[in-house]
Each structure stands twice: as C-alpha cells, then as structure tokens.
Amino acid sequence: MTVRVLVADDQEIVRTGLTMILNAQPGIEVVAEAGDGRRAVELARRERPDVCLLDIRMPGLDGIEATRALAGPQVDDPLAVVVITTFDLDEYVYAALRAGARGFLLKDAGPALLVQAVHAAAEGDALIAPSITTRLLRAFADAGPPQAPRQPIEPLTDREEQVVGLLAQGRTNAEIAQELRITLSTVKTHVASLMNKIGARNRVEIAMWAYETDRVRIRKYRGGSF
User: Fold this and answer.
1) Mean pLDDT per segment of 10 residues, for the chain of length 226 residues?
2) How many structural domains are present in the chain?
3) What is the pTM of this model?
4) Measuring CA to CA, which residue among 148, 107, 136 is closest to residue 204?
5) Do both 93 and 197 map to the same domain?
6) Which helix (H) or strand (E) holds 53?
7) What is the C-alpha to C-alpha distance for residues 112 and 79, in angstroms, rounded to an integer?
8) Which residue ranges does the record assign to the Response regulatory domain (predicted)?
9) CATH number of residue 163's parent domain
10) Cβ proximity of 7 and 114 under 8 Å
11) Which residues contact 38 (CB under 8 A, 6 or more apart)?
C-alpha cells in the first residue's frame, strides 16, 4: 500500500527536495505540502496522511507545537509524525518525542534514512538519527523523569520485559522477532499488550518509559548497536 506523506518546511527549496526524494520512491506519495506549522496542522487534519514530516523551526507554529497538535497526549486519533531538522540539539529531540513524534532526523541524514524513517513511522516503528541516539538515551538516564513514571496496570511478563529492552534500543519489530526467535505477529501482540499495560500510545513512549523506570541502562555504543 502507498504511504501518504505531508511535508512541512518553511524553506521552499528544502520542501521541494524532500518531496522529490519521497515521490521518487515506490510506495510513497507526498499528498500535501506546507510552509508553516499552522498550515501543516490544517492540511494534516484534512488529508489524514500516514506520516507527517515536520521541520522544527517554522513560522506561526513551530514543529514541536505542530507535533503536539497532531500527535500529543490529548489527541484522540494521533497521526504519525517524523521531525526533521538541521539542529541536533538535545532539547529539540527530547521535546519532539515528548510531543508525540515517532522519529527524529537531521536534514543531512540522506535519502535512504529519510525513506526508512517514513516507512518505520507508517508501520508504527520509530527511527531516531543514529548520530544523536546515544546522547538522547544518556539524557534520559541522567536527567531522570519529569515526574514519577507510571506503573503498569498489570505486571509485565518475562517476554514483555525482553521486548521492552530491545524496543528501547531502537530495534524494529522484525529485528526483535529475529533476536527472540518469535514470529512478527507475536512481537506486535507483545507491543500492543505493553501499550495497554503502561498507557503508552506508541513505541517511542514505551522506550521512554523503559529508561524512566531503569529497565534499560546506557551501555557503550559500538558500531550502530548498544
């Protein structure tokens, strides 16, 4: 099925470039473009794209607030948002994920990673630029949660604890299935159960919860994995 995408960036040349890259990919179609945050929110609510690709710095309404309006905790039917920016400041990353983003990329990430992030968001996975992943996770560990982390309504099973650990390391459903030697549908069942037990709405929130509850600790980063 075709992944329908909204692209929002205040720089026309960047917006056009992103649109060209995505439209050149089989299975992806850019259905709307916006030059500011308010227009992005308006178009997203009208078109209901599978993925919204939002710049951080936009006039009127920035990418963080636009993300919150489309995917924040108060949104009943959230859209999948991937934030893309030239700024890899930790506060931007943290704020974007807190606002409900399913991914965070730098504009120099390249077409392959951009396409991967769009597909991941559409499928319910999350992708964060590798260059900032380690710093982000360390920030979670060092800063601690802004409030006491919520407790699960039911105890997690041993398998769910394993899934949480791998998910918090940025593994996709397919990678989790391969490592635990279970089926992809079983992984999806575990993820759905985890979201229900801890009140999370997506994989990013599960990963953040894992760090906030000390279920996953920072390990030395080596060659793309933890």
Assistant:
1) 95 94 96 96 97 92 94 89 77 78 83 88 73 56 58 90 85 86 92 90 77 62 31
2) 2
3) 0.69
4) 136
5) no
6) strand 51-55
7) 22
8) 4-122
9) 1.10.10.10
10) no
11) 60, 61, 66
